Amino acid sequence: MDCMVGWGITNESKAVMGTKPDGTVKYNTGDTHHVHGSYVDGTYDGKYLFVNDKIHGRVARIRMDTMETDKITEIPNIQGFHGIFTDKRDPVDEKINHTTRVFCGNEFHIPQPNDGRDLDDPKKYFCLFTCVDTETMQVRWQCKVNGNMDLVATSYDGKLACANQYNTENGAHYEDTMSSERDACVFFDVARIEAAIKAGKSFTIGDSKVPVVDGTPDANKDPKTALTCYVPVPKNPHGVNISPDGKYYACSGKLSPTATLIEHASVLKWFNGELKDPREAVVAEPEIGLGPLHTGFDGRGNAYTTLFLDSQIVKWNLDAAMKAFKGDKSAKPVVDRIDVHYQPGHGFTSMGETKEADGKFFISDNKFSKDRLLPVGPLHPEVAQMIDISGDKMKLVGEHTTWPEPHDAIIVRRDRVKTRQVYNLDDFPNAVKDAKDCRVERKGNKVTVYLTSQAPVIGLREFKVKRGDEVTIILTNLDKVEDLTHGFAIPKYNVNFIVNPQETKSVTFKADKPGVYWCYCTHFCHALHLEMRSRMLVEK
Ligand code: RUQ
Ligand code: CUA
Ligand code: CA
Which atom in ligand 2 lies closest to the alpha carbon of residue 524? Predict the structure, then answer.
């Protein structure tokens, strides 16, 4: 719930969030981690952003023109939705050079269906990798895998999606999750999965109608028909990111001081039966420091990885790492290090997840601030730090506090962001288009109050309802001036939302308390902002 915008309060936001039969919002908690944009030709098209909700397994779509969430999809059969990434083109129809899928990695393995069966048998639990359609926001398919998935990455040719996995042991306790020396980065052959589903080689789980294919290692031993390929990576790896040239995936070791570089072309070769062992797709594994987590690229052949334990960003060169892997003792992969404050998690470069990586900036999202700021109580703000990576040496150039904990972000070049500043009145079927149309309409005990706001006036100076009425207020902001937002709050009725220029929003509530209630503007809009009010008169 966000009173600043009325998210979770207005009928429009409730429709996006989903409601329970009693009309209340289904979930009012969330746990977002990663955000990624939609693509055309390997770079951001400025249309959508997608963000995951780990706790409830939901994916939200944000319209980039208004920077508002317009759809939320709850994914069936999963718990703990961690990594998310959009595809970058269609693997089946190469002419479609834009995003139509968003891939969702599932972290917590559960019994399937999770209806009380197999509670004490974690070896029977499993995770699902999910594909959601970016336009309809319907779930297209799911793929059963071994292990717990962390981050998701996608290739520039649309052929592969992948996820790093830290619990290929399928352990239920942390010591079990660390029992093997290697886990994996699992690759999904998107076209093959979709062909298998078309051919009806799928099953369903519980009440869900989503087709599921089997992507477990045992069912995918023959490369020529395999839907998945598990490339071993040491140990409880964290993060997987693809280089802007589309050639390499970097997986961080987390519990190993290494990064693992996996070659895209080699993974494709494995799927074609030209490579015997997925291990042959690993082309470098440099030692880079302690607790490596996430990697950004500069488009000049260098990678920048966050080191959680060392509290550093390490810059390493891909070519040198590949030479060293082949045995060249003179090759030195690590070229620079810089301290950050402290314990970085995600790190990312400007436009670094597109073909247009510009090599200008890297941002380190740090998990601890410790002594960095004035003490403000037990809960410290965290810091994000900006590093200039344009030269040979990394330079810290900016720092700001953030809410705990800054998780992930992308840096998008500003010409890719084309927002609109004023809504279109016609986009809202329920708009009150003229202040003269303000009125109260009653049907039985259902009352609709049509209101407008135009600084400093709310369309009705007062309106009367009866105790027990179900009241819907529809409010259109008739101001056309950029940034001229009005708010609307009703004390004791838990109503507080804003309406932007030329926008319409509505709220519905029960008039259960008789008396006078001053409906007031919450957003400083005019010299007469404090005077911008109406009265709701509730008869007893
Ligand atoms: S991830 S802090 Cu799993 Cu976002 Cu790394
Ligand atoms: Cu309208 Cu303040
Ligand atoms: Ca493990």
Answer: 2
